[in-house]
Specification:
single chain; about 290 residues; mainly alpha; Cytochrome p450; two-stranded antiparallel ribbon; two-stranded antiparallel sheet; 10 helices; about 50% helix; about 5% strand; membrane
Length: about 290
């Protein structure tokens, strides 16, 4: 969320967010190195499960404070939206889009989909879930991706040259105007760079089943070896070479299962389009 004035800045909120992030990392380290599955009869890991339970309750209380602050932000933004006249444009940000979803202020507003009514706006709990998912699932992944994009562009001058030529052809050196949807659709080479970087770098069953002649008990975790799929020579020639131009070949997109950038099926990444927009626009803004 963009601060409108210095009065909106509350150092306590940022300290709370920082403490939550540190708590997550400490919890992951603690569980990995100080708990093990107990081979003896009993319901708990051994030997530090008591400390872990106490740690969990402190962690849970921290989240209550965090969500309470989020509710305050949501209510304030919803009030601002309600006080804004219909002929005045609203801020173009994720929070505003989520709050106005399924309301007349929604640019994609529709009353029904498949016969199901969609005239109910989201609750604060639903809004909080979406925003929090964006924090946890969309911040570090995008940051890591743009880091590797910069790395591979720096390592491949020919790729960098083509990218700059495409960006200059679209923006003509204009460093002021914002990137439009039409501009984004033309940034094809930037898009294939993102795909190539993603290429070169579980699910759990609820009941027992038979797959390819093998019996799998309930609770079995399945993990996909994406690296083997991405470097399958049947799908791409010279797979160990960084070559974004491979994605410009006509017909390659038809083999949609050869790139598991956002996985697929029921558990496909819900923020895949937003992630692509962020990555491509960051590349363009860096050059303009």
């Amino acid at each position: 969320m963009i601060l409108k004035s210095f009065e909106d800045f509350r150092i306590g909120d940022y300290l709370l967010l920082l403490s939550t992030i540190l708590t997550i990392y400490v919890a992951q380290y603690y569980y990995k190195y100080f708990t093990r599955v107990n081979p003896l009869p009993g319901p708990f890991p051994f030997p530090f499960i008591g400390n872990l339970i106490q740690f969990y309750w402190w962690f849970k209380g921290d989240f209550k404070v965090f969500y309470r602050r989020l509710d305050e932000i949501f209510k304030k933004r919803r009030q601002e939206i309600e006080n804004t006249s219909l002929n005045k444009p609203l801020p173009n940000d994720m929070l505003t889009s989520v709050i106005t979803a399924n309301t007349p202020r929604d640019v994609n507003y529709t009353k029904t989909v498949g016969g199901e009514a969609l005239d109910r706006p989201m609750t604060y709990s639903e809004i909080g879930g979406i925003i929090f998912d964006g924090f946890l699932g969309g911040s570090d992944t995008t940051a890591n991706a743009i880091s590797f994009i910069i790395y591979y562009i720096a390592r491949n001058p020919d790729v960098k040259k083509k990218m700059i030529e495409e960006i200059n052809r679209i923006f003509q050196g204009d460093k002021i105007r914002p990137i439009t949807e039409n501009d984004f659709q033309k940034l094809k080479y930037c898009e294939v760079i993102v795909k190539e970087v993603s290429r070169i770098f579980p699910r759990c069953i609820e009941k027992s089943d038979e797959i390819t002649g093998y019996q799998w008990p309930a609770g079995t975790m399945f993990r996909i070896n994406a690296d083997v799929i991405h470097k399958n020579e049947d799908c791409c020639e010279d797979p160990d070479k960084f070559n974004p131009d491979r994605w410009m070949v006509e017909g390659l997109e038809s083999n949609k299962h050869s790139l598991l950038m956002f996985v697929g099926g029921l558990r496909i990444c819900p923020g895949r389009k937003l992630a692509m927009i962020e990555l491509i626009c960051l590349m363009a803004l860096h050059i303009i």
